[in-house]
Amino acid sequence: MFECNQCGLCCRNIDKVPQLKDFHDGNGICKYLHNNICSIYDNRPDICSVDRMYEKYFENQYTRSEFYDLNKLVCEEIRNLNI
Fold it and tell me: Would the pTM of this model clear 0.90, i.e. be above it?
């Protein structure tokens, strides 16, 4: 399972994700993020789940470890943008 530190930054920058355009009100912050916790976590879209995205779309392109490493890099980039 992908290790998420639950910083919430990916949920605060969804305006950059076309598939999530209906999940924010123009501010880029997911309307389901409450107190830094996803209120629809068990039913969140596939794009919000690293593991589901790997299993459905990327397992033929990367090893799980490679895919996790790529996602960790994106997490670091988002953190660096929000310092």
Answer: no
